[in-house]
Specification:
By secondary structure, the chain is of the alpha+beta class. The chain is built from 4 helices and 6 strands; from the N terminus they run αββββαββαα. It has one domain: Aspartate Aminotransferase, domain 1 (Alpha-Beta Complex), CATH 3.90.1150.
């Protein structure tokens, strides 16, 4: 029996992933977007409902923006592309672990822009445990 990697990321999975990270808050903005922030600055969001239901958007490193938006299933995030945000329009194309890594990278990037004092108060950076066979 072969083990297939899980694909996509639900709103519940995203919330479970980020909920215990230091300083993370979650709220609903623009009527239908679950937004995750650290230090009051957004790092990820997921659309809830409508034609964009399940669409995941997050901040990426400047040097990865073009590489990632060149992949099928990822576009520059509307309204946020100037700040190097991507929108994963086909989350099922990507392994859950890959999407989780995007979110952790986004959190790390945004957190790094906070003051040193604020970063220190948050404590150590979170890590994602990857289960291997």
């Amino acid at each position: 029996m072969t083990h297939q990697a899980k694909h996509g990321l639900s709103a519940a999975q995203l919330e479970a992933l980020c909920a215990h990270w230091p300083g993370v808050t979650c709220d609903i903005k623009w009527g239908a977007a679950k937004v995750f922030s650290v230090g009051g600055k957004m790092f990820a969001l997921m659309r809830l409902g409508g034609s964009e239901n399940g669409r995941l958007s997050c901040k990426v490193a400047d040097e990865r923006f073009l590489e990632l938006t060149d992949q099928p299933g990822i576009i520059p995030a509307p309204y946020l592309a100037r700040a190097h945000w991507i929108s994963v329009v086909e989350p099922q194309r990507f392994a859950t672990t890959e999407l989780q890594a995007f979110i952790l990278d986004a959190y790390t990037l945004v957190r790094a822009k906070l003051t040193k004092k604020r970063q220190a108060a948050l404590g150590p950076l979170p890590v994602i445990e990857v289960k291997r066979k």
